[in-house]
Amino acid sequence: MQAVSVKVGDRYGPEFVNQIYRRLLSFNKDIVYYCMTDDRKGLNKNIEVIPVADEFGDRKWWTKIELFKPGVFDEPTLYFDLDCFLHQSPWELLQNYNKDKLGVLKTYWFSDDVATKIHQCTVNTSVMMINENNCEPLWKECEDNMEKIYKSFYGLDPWIYRRHLNDTYFFQPGLTYSFKHGCVFPNDTESNKLRMVPVCVFDDVQNRDEILNELWQYK
Amino acid sequence: MNYGNINKVNNEIQKLWAKGLGYVASEHVYKFKDYSESVFDTQIESKYWLAHNLHSHVPDIKHISVLASWYGLVLVPMLYHYFGEINIDLYDVDEYTTDIADYIWNEYPKVNVYTKDVVFDDIDYKGSVLINTSCEHMMDMKLITNDHKDKIFVLQSNDNANVKWLHINCAMDVDELIKQSGLTDIMFSESKEIYEHKRIMIIGKHDAPVSPPERAWKYLMTHSDSGRRPQTESSEVANYA
Question: Is 3.90.550.10 the CATH classification of the domain at A2-104+124-157+204-215?
Answer without folding.
Answer: yes
